[in-house]
């Protein structure tokens, strides 16, 4: 036998036993986004490397060590997208969607990061992301957060997640704060972990993110970003908080929340859970008013977020919502032609129902076993007798009740009345 080819580490197959939960989740998210008037946009998974370098920032984990970057056959440097915002901005700008109008967009799909694979962290993972353009006021920040809160209710996860909120201020606020932070941390260099010492020189705000106990002790006495916010950022943040309070959305202020991408300013937020160990952030986002201009467009305010689908799936698996079975009706027969014809008629008369027609022959007994395993509510039996009489035997598989013989003319209406 020849050697088998296996998948790449951190790149998962999503198997049929799991896709039903994925589809359930995706359908619910799509439903909520539709209810808020958001439109889907689909971008390519491959973009020019420059797009990510210029947006995410050179000195970030993603650009420094996580990107799948290679030269294509023409010699151009291309990158598998590590996130969706940059591509969404590029597409919206390229197609004139940002010209004199506002946009509420969403996308879904695989993202790629060369990280150490572990539970909730993969090299190919999926995000559902939302981006809005053209609105500078905090009402749109609030709308996005209210939307996510509704989503958790819809998914039955509301009691599993909490909202953390912070303001990063404007670029000039951050610059003043950065100076203060650097001079404070420099005095305590010897007590910082190695990663933080490196960040101190290249991207000091990220030190706030450190999980190292020694560094966290030092941070306890560090200057606070909140004290460096100017009037504009401060009133934006107060406006957002008032809107969230009015909407009854609970949050905690986390002064250490800085996010790993350079383009954020003003609002940043994360929905976190303690049910997933270290991979606790299920949804993260914020405002990025400077990015469109930074990528060559006209200055356009923007705010968005992305959620990690695998992490939400892990949470959902812990409470396993009731999913529709693979089949609702399973047709068992000794006559393939009659069975296929009955299945077609049922698909016409009971649209949306899952009708599985047994294929491949076999004894009545083995067909019934498969019917049972399919999860169907009813087996519909077309044996010799039924073919002669024109009736169909309906056998309940999931609930009590006698099997009955029904005329074909009323079969669909009777089934419709009894299907859950
Ligand atoms: P983390 O701190 O967990 O590395 P991040 O700040 O890098 O997350 P973002 O770039 O904000 O994450 O991406 C948004 C969401 O996408 C995250 O909150 C998470 O749910 C999910 N996510 C990010 N990286 C991965 C990954 N490698 N595998 C699975 N999900 C991921
Ligand atoms: Mg990360």
Please give a structural write-up.
With 420 residues, this protein is of the alpha+beta class. Helix content is 40%, strand content 20%. The protein contains 15 helices and 16 strands. It has helices at residues 16-35, 49-56, 61-66, 85-94, 138-155, 171-187, 194-202, 213-220, 231-247, 291-294, 309-319, 336-349, 364-373, 384-389, 408-418; strands at 39-40, 46-48, 68-71, 77-80, 103-112, 124-133, 162-167, 252-253, 267-272, 281-287, 302-308, 329-333, 355-357, 378-382, 391-396, 404-407. The strands form three sheets. An eight-stranded mixed beta sheet has the order 1-5-6-11-10-9-7-8. A five-stranded mixed beta sheet has the order 13-12-14-15-16, with helices on both faces. Helix 1 packs antiparallel against helix 5 (138-155) and helix 5 (138-155) packs parallel to helix 9. The longest helix has 20 residues, at 16-35. It is elongated. The chain starts with 15 loop residues before the first helix and ends with a helix. The mean pLDDT is 95. It binds adenosine-5'-triphosphate and magnesium ion (MG). Adenosine-5'-triphosphate binds next to strand 6, strand 10, strand 11 and helix 11. Magnesium ion is lined by residues 61, 260. Its EC number is 6.1.1.21. Keywords: Aminoacyl-tRNA synthetase, ATP-binding, Cytoplasm, Ligase, Nucleotide-binding, Protein biosynthesis. InterPro entries: aa-tRNA-synth_II, aa-tRNA-synth_II/BPL/LPL, Anticodon-bd, Anticodon-bd_dom_sf, His-tRNA-ligase, HisRS-like_core, HisRS/HisZ, HisRS_anticodon. Homodimer. This is Histidine--tRNA ligase.
């Amino acid at each position: 036998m020849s050697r088998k080819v296996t998948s790449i580490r951190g790149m998962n197959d999503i198997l049929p036993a799991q896709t039903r939960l994925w589809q359930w989740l995706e359908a619910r998210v799509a439903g909520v986004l539709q209810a808020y008037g958001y439109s889907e946009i689909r971008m390519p998974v491959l973009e020019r490397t420059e797009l990510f370098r210029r947006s995410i920032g050179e000195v970030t984990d993603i650009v420094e060590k996580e990107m799948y970057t290679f030269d294509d056959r023409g010699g151009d440097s291309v990158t598998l997208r590590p996130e969706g915002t940059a591509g969404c901005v590029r597409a919206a700008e390229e197609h004139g969607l940002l010209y004199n109008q506002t946009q509420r967009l969403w996308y879904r799909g695989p993202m790629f990061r060369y990280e150490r694979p572990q539970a909730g962290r993969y090299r190919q993972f999926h995000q559902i992301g939302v981006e809005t353009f053209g609105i500078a006021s905090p009402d749109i920040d609030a709308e996005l957060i209210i939307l996510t809160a509704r989503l958790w209710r819809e998914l039955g996860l509301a009691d599993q997640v909490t909202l953390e909120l912070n303001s990063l201020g404007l670029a000039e606020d951050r610059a003043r704060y950065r100076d203060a932070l650097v001079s404070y941390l420099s005095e305590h260099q010897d007590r910082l972990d190695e990663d933080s010492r490196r960040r101190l020189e290249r991207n000091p705000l990220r030190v706030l993110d450190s999980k190292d106990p020694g560094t966290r002790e030092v941070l306890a006495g560090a200057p606070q970003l909140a004290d460096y916010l100017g009037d504009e950022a401060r009133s934006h943040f107060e406006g957002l908080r008032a809107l969230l309070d009015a909407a009854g959305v609970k949050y905690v202020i986390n002064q250490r929340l800085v996010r790993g991408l350079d383009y954020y300013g003003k609002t940043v937020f994360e929905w976190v859970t303690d049910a997933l160990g270290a991979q606790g952030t299920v949804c993260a986002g914020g405002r990025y008013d400077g990015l469109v201009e930074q990528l060559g467009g006209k200055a356009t305010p923007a705010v968005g977020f992305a959620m990690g689908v695998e992490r939400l799936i892990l949470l959902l698996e812990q409470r396993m919502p009731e999913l529709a079975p693979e089949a609702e009706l399973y047709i068992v027969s000794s006559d393939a032609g009659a069975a296929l014809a009955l299945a077609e008629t049922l698909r016409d008369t009971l649209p949306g129902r899952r009708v599985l027609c047994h294929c491949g022959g076999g004894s009545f007994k083995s067909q019934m076993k498969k019917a049972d395993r399919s999860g169907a509510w009813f087996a519909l039996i077309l044996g010799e007798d039924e073919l002669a009489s024109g009736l169909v035997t309906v056998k309940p598989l999931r609930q009590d009740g006698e099997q009955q013989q029904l005329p074909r003319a009323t079969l669909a209406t009777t089934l419709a009345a009894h299907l859950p």
